[in-house]
Amino acid sequence: MKSFKKFMVIGLVLVFSLVVLLPFGSGFATSKKQLVVWSHLTQNEVKALQPLADEWGKKNGYTVKVISDQGSFQSFQTAAMSGKGPDIMFGIPHDNLGTFWKAKLLEPVPANLIDRKNFVAMSLDACSFDGKLYALPIAMETYALFYNTSKVKEAPKTMSQLITLAKKYGFMYDVNNFYFSFAFIAQNGGYVFKNKGGALDPNDIGLANNGAIKGLSLIRDFVLTYKFMPKDIRGDIAKGNFQNGKIAFYISGPWDVGDFVKAKVPFAVAPLPKTDDGKPTPSFVGVQSAFVSAKSKNKDAAFKLLKYLVEESQVKVLFKVGSRIPVTTGALSNPEVKADKIMSAFAEQAKVGIPMPNIPEMQAVWGPAGNTLSLVTTGKATPKQAAEAMVKQIKQGIAQMQ
Q1: Please, which residues have CB within 8 angstroms of residue 240's CB and are 6 or more apart in sequence?
Q2: What residue spans in the chain does CATH classification 3.40.190.10 cover?
Q3: Could you tell me the fold of the domain covering 19-140+286-354?
Q4: In angstroms, rounded to a whole number, what is the distance separating the alpha carbons of residues 172 and 241?
Q5: Do residues 151 and 171 touch, judged by C-beta distance below 8 A?
Q6: pLDDT in tens, 358-380
Q7: Nearest to 329 by CA among 321, 320, 338
Q8: In terms of Cα–Cα distance, which of 396, 304, 362 is closest to 102?
Q9: pTM for the complete prediction?
Q10: Nearest to 388 by CA among 213, 220, 194, 185
Q11: Are 238 and 174 spatial neighbours (Cβ–Cβ below 8 Å)?
């Protein structure tokens, strides 16, 4: 009996020693709960995001790890399905959300988490499916009109003004790229998929309606009638001609600003010219988004952290470090943001923009749309013929996805 008691005492001492020596993060004993954030933002943005996460964690009794995820977007899906994914994905283009939504990996955003009036409405649409919000927007990106201020003092306000000035000073852009040319297709009512009550209908394609055909006719005229640019123009050629002062007008996005500043190009940026009857020209807008994984075991806390990171990162991280356009009205009215005339111009354009469709069926659009533009700008098909053929090809592509 004594030897048995002695054995029990020794065993208890050993167990107690193991408990004391175990690291807090082992799951056996823990002083803090943990949340994990994966981010596809740049390394510098991820570094700047960690202190904000630490601030929230300190106030709420959590350790938060912000990890730079350099893998493919699909790596999240694989990790989440196996139970090894993050609680939050912070910084992913909104048009990649559709795959995760179909896989039921996006946790719906609680109705009372944010005040929708504090966000650019378009950015919330980009993160919604069937009228329900599944992610939060964190930044937006679009293209606008660059103009050489040594050639023209003010940006053209209408399409007629642009054409008149372009005849004298030159105008180019990546015309056969549907991402850019969509703006002219949309300015008179063309659309990719009809938005019906917040849900995109892939069976209702508006790329061959009267507005779309009118837009394709204008694009054809840019090349064949006005001869602003060759039919095989590429984006890098157009950029080079603007940078070298050969043309006064160029359509592109914030990604070109740094090169123009370094090259000391005298330039400014303005929203795309309106139609002659005053309608805005809606560009495609990309929205960086953030969401809580449906597989997270700490969803309530994850949503609170997500809200904090979105609100606090707008100016401190996304604008200052990432040179991205904020999506909250508060950040857009920040004096430092408003003082940046270039980013403010892109923001003004984004407000009238249209989010790139976030449903998977969009993948069936890019190829036929690009081919259609090439047919139109080379004169191999009329805008009407090309548009009707494009819609037929898109429908066939969607059918193959089913």
Answers
A1: none
A2: 19-140+286-354, 144-285+356-401
A3: D-Maltodextrin-Binding Protein; domain 2 (3.40.190)
A4: 8
A5: no
A6: 999 999 999 999 999 999 999 99
A7: 338
A8: 362
A9: 0.86
A10: 213
A11: yes
